[in-house]
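Researcher: Here's the sequence for the chain we discussed earlier.
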Amino acid sequence: FAGVVYSYDQEGVHRDARGWEQCISVPLLQPEAGQLLQHWDSLLQQFSLEEAWLPHRYEEQQHNCFTFALAFINRVRQGRGGAALSRAEFTERFVLPRAREAAGYLRLQQLLEHSDIHIVPLAEQQQQQ
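Model: Thanks. This is the structure I predict for it:
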Protein backbone atom coordinates (compact mmCIF):
# COMPACT_ATOMS: atom_id res chain seq x y z
CA PHE A 1 0.00 0.00 0.00
CA ALA A 2 1.06 3.57 -0.59
CA GLY A 3 -0.03 6.39 1.63
CA VAL A 4 0.51 8.19 4.89
CA VAL A 5 0.30 6.70 8.37
CA TYR A 6 -1.01 8.82 11.22
CA SER A 7 0.20 7.98 14.70
CA TYR A 8 -0.08 9.60 18.11
CA ASP A 9 2.45 9.60 20.94
CA GLN A 10 3.84 11.85 23.68
CA GLU A 11 5.00 14.28 20.98
CA GLY A 12 1.53 14.55 19.40
CA VAL A 13 0.23 13.43 16.02
CA HIS A 14 2.71 12.32 13.34
CA ARG A 15 2.21 11.79 9.62
CA ASP A 16 4.74 9.41 8.11
CA ALA A 17 5.11 8.13 4.57
CA ARG A 18 7.92 5.76 5.59
CA GLY A 19 8.90 3.65 8.54
CA TRP A 20 5.74 1.54 8.63
CA GLU A 21 6.73 -1.06 6.04
CA GLN A 22 6.42 -3.90 8.55
CA CYS A 23 3.13 -2.87 10.11
CA ILE A 24 -0.09 -4.86 9.81
CA SER A 25 -2.77 -3.26 7.67
CA VAL A 26 -6.30 -3.68 9.03
CA PRO A 27 -8.86 -3.04 6.27
CA LEU A 28 -11.87 -1.23 7.68
CA LEU A 29 -13.87 -0.25 4.62
CA GLN A 30 -15.68 -2.40 2.12
CA PRO A 31 -14.71 -1.87 -1.54
CA GLU A 32 -18.09 -0.23 -2.23
CA ALA A 33 -17.26 2.57 0.24
CA GLY A 34 -15.46 4.52 -2.48
CA GLN A 35 -17.14 7.82 -1.63
CA LEU A 36 -15.93 7.58 1.96
CA LEU A 37 -12.43 6.67 0.78
CA GLN A 38 -12.28 9.95 -1.11
CA HIS A 39 -13.04 11.90 2.08
CA TRP A 40 -11.01 9.72 4.45
CA ASP A 41 -7.81 11.79 4.19
CA SER A 42 -9.52 15.11 4.85
CA LEU A 43 -11.53 13.64 7.75
CA LEU A 44 -8.36 12.22 9.28
CA GLN A 45 -6.47 15.48 8.81
CA GLN A 46 -9.24 17.44 10.56
CA PHE A 47 -9.53 14.85 13.33
CA SER A 48 -5.78 14.86 14.00
CA LEU A 49 -5.85 18.63 14.64
CA GLU A 50 -8.37 18.38 17.47
CA GLU A 51 -7.37 19.43 20.98
CA ALA A 52 -7.74 15.85 22.27
CA TRP A 53 -4.58 14.87 20.38
CA LEU A 54 -2.23 17.53 21.72
CA PRO A 55 1.04 16.14 23.10
CA HIS A 56 0.31 16.98 26.75
CA ARG A 57 -2.89 14.88 26.62
CA TYR A 58 -1.00 11.70 25.78
CA GLU A 59 -1.12 9.03 28.49
CA GLU A 60 0.60 5.72 27.80
CA GLN A 61 -2.15 3.44 29.12
CA GLN A 62 -5.40 5.31 28.50
CA HIS A 63 -4.94 8.00 25.82
CA ASN A 64 -2.52 6.64 23.25
CA CYS A 65 -2.20 5.70 19.58
CA PHE A 66 -4.78 2.93 19.93
CA THR A 67 -7.19 5.47 21.45
CA PHE A 68 -6.49 7.83 18.54
CA ALA A 69 -7.19 5.16 15.91
CA LEU A 70 -10.32 3.83 17.60
CA ALA A 71 -11.72 7.32 18.22
CA PHE A 72 -11.29 8.16 14.53
CA ILE A 73 -12.87 4.91 13.41
CA ASN A 74 -15.81 5.47 15.75
CA ARG A 75 -16.22 9.05 14.48
CA VAL A 76 -16.48 7.74 10.91
CA ARG A 77 -18.81 4.88 11.92
CA GLN A 78 -21.12 7.21 13.83
CA GLY A 79 -21.13 9.69 10.95
CA ARG A 80 -22.46 6.90 8.76
CA GLY A 81 -25.09 5.85 11.31
CA GLY A 82 -23.10 2.98 12.80
CA ALA A 83 -22.53 2.14 16.42
CA ALA A 84 -19.27 2.89 18.18
CA LEU A 85 -16.93 -0.02 18.84
CA SER A 86 -15.45 -0.71 22.26
CA ARG A 87 -11.73 -1.42 22.59
CA ALA A 88 -12.47 -5.09 23.13
CA GLU A 89 -14.85 -5.36 20.17
CA PHE A 90 -12.48 -3.54 17.81
CA THR A 91 -9.58 -5.72 18.92
CA GLU A 92 -11.57 -8.94 18.54
CA ARG A 93 -13.17 -8.11 15.19
CA PHE A 94 -10.36 -6.31 13.39
CA VAL A 95 -6.96 -6.52 15.09
CA LEU A 96 -6.73 -10.12 16.30
CA PRO A 97 -7.64 -11.78 12.98
CA ARG A 98 -4.90 -9.82 11.18
CA ALA A 99 -2.40 -10.45 13.97
CA ARG A 100 -3.11 -14.21 13.83
CA GLU A 101 -2.67 -14.18 10.06
CA ALA A 102 0.65 -12.31 10.39
CA ALA A 103 1.83 -14.74 13.09
CA GLY A 104 1.14 -17.64 10.74
CA TYR A 105 3.24 -16.06 8.00
CA LEU A 106 6.04 -15.36 10.47
CA ARG A 107 6.01 -18.99 11.64
CA LEU A 108 6.16 -20.16 8.04
CA GLN A 109 9.07 -17.81 7.32
CA GLN A 110 10.96 -19.09 10.38
CA LEU A 111 10.38 -22.71 9.36
CA LEU A 112 11.64 -22.03 5.86
CA GLU A 113 14.70 -20.15 7.12
CA HIS A 114 15.73 -23.10 9.30
CA SER A 115 15.14 -25.82 6.72
CA ASP A 116 17.05 -27.12 3.74
CA ILE A 117 14.65 -25.42 1.35
CA HIS A 118 15.88 -22.86 -1.15
CA ILE A 119 13.31 -20.52 -2.66
CA VAL A 120 13.90 -19.59 -6.29
CA PRO A 121 12.05 -16.61 -7.84
CA LEU A 122 9.72 -17.40 -10.73
CA ALA A 123 10.79 -16.22 -14.18
CA GLU A 124 8.21 -13.40 -14.17
CA GLN A 125 9.47 -12.15 -10.79
CA GLN A 126 13.05 -12.08 -12.11
CA GLN A 127 11.95 -9.94 -15.07
CA GLN A 128 10.30 -7.41 -12.75
CA GLN A 129 13.51 -6.94 -10.76
